[in-house]
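Hello,

I think I submitted the zinc ion job twice by accident. Can you confirm which output corresponds to this input? Input:
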Amino acid sequence: MIITYMCIFCIGAALASFINATLYRIEKKFKWKELLTQSSHCETCKHSLSWIDLFPILGFLINQGKCKYCGAKINPYYPISEFLLGTVFLLFFLYSISFYFYIIILFLFVLSNYDIKEFGIPKNLTHIFLGLCLLIFAFTFDITKIYLPVLIGISLLIINLLKKSFGLGDILLILGLGILLSKEQFVIFFWLSVIIALLYSVVFIIVKKISIKKAKVPMVPFLSIAFVISTVYGEEIWNWVLKYLQI
Ligand SMILES: [Zn+2]
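Support: Only one job matched these inputs. Its output is below.
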């Protein structure tokens, strides 16, 4: 069984590595043909990388976070994101989460990458993502899942018109992810994402010594983390909160 778990983790980590490399090539305006065919190389010294350098997480650890040819530092975003996606795949497998959610999380991984780098997500990708969520909703039709996300979505839109808070892309994402979750999971998902983003903002403001107005927070990574936690543990957290509040 442990071999199966390791394989599932490695599939997640390898997909993260592949997506990171492809997005990097798109960002650097590689030609379409080169996106998949060109071999990877160090951006500083242009030396071709061997398969062990490219191995998710391990390559980073073995080379101690540096290019072994020129010593240039490798962005820790790569091994961290590979580890996280591997862990999410393993969690989903252990808790027998529906196959649809693997597709959703891969999409969220791409959107998070954009949001972290550019503090925003491309409109066309957001629309495709919303379409995908609606398609999955139609396949697993449960009308009770739609009320709360729509209510929160409209409320956030109104707040957004009065005073800029969430971006429009974030609101559409909350709506799309919301209709895939049960009512209890959605409440946990929404509050968790707000709490994690707030905690991050506080730490960010203190560490960087900047004012609250200047603090830019990429929301998609927090929505993704909250989505994973509420998918796997949402019902349990909900029951625990009710018990704690003695409702
Ligand atoms: Zn190098």
